[in-house]
Amino acid sequence: MPIARVAATNRLIEALPRKDRQRLLAGCEPVELSFAEVLAEPAERICHVYFPTTSYISLVTPIDGCASLEVGLVGDEGMLGISLILGVDISPLSALVQGEGLALRMDAAPFCRELDFSPALHGLLKRYLHVVMGQLAQSTACTRFHVVEARLARCLLMAQDRAHSDAFHGTHEFLASMLGVRRVGVTKAATSLQDRKLISYSRGNITILDRGGLEAASCGCYEADNTTYARVMD
């Protein structure tokens, strides 16, 4: 069944001047993304860019071919395929859907033509690329220096921001893969957060019960990411 065309709610697209926004939207199609759907693989050619609206996408780097680690999360504040602005059409990371929902998709070739045609789009995405680079560095430091419980709290806050809901989906297996830890590590951290009545977790369904408490349990990387985005993009 075809998906009805919806108004864009992606913050990057909304930040464009009206004419640039309308021209970009004319080349996009709304698509529905499913949980755990793979949108990109390392070293594979980028065929489409995605502007999430109600969905969100994990950026994952493989480790030794047998494990993986989430290094970024893209929701309605960003886009997937930003390396095209550098003239690189090969994906550096895996991208899989963490939060199902809608996105606006555009073929890579017309997107690159739009970059050449629209200085406003090009300038906006250069700033966004700067934000992504900072977030990747922040994520690396977070993984090295912060405990699993604080990292899980940060992950859940990021997911809640992009889901725009207190309730969303995330299995133990998926969270363990995203955090680069064993399943038992996620179970222990999630149980601790649940015992403190910060979250409710059952059969992969997560509900944030105490947003302020979860922010306190998170490491400072969550606030650092938000500050960087606000400083550069707003």
From TrEMBL:
GO terms, molecular function: DNA binding
Pfam annotation, one family: HTH_Crp_2
Keywords: DNA-binding, Transcription, Transcription regulation
Domain HTH crp-type per the UniProt entry, residue ranges: 146-212
InterPro entries found in the cross-reference section: cNMP-bd_dom_sf (IPR018490), HTH_CRP (IPR012318), WH-like_DNA-bd_sf (IPR036388), WH_DNA-bd_sf (IPR036390)
Keyword Metal-binding: no
Protein's name in the database: Cyclic nucleotide-binding domain protein
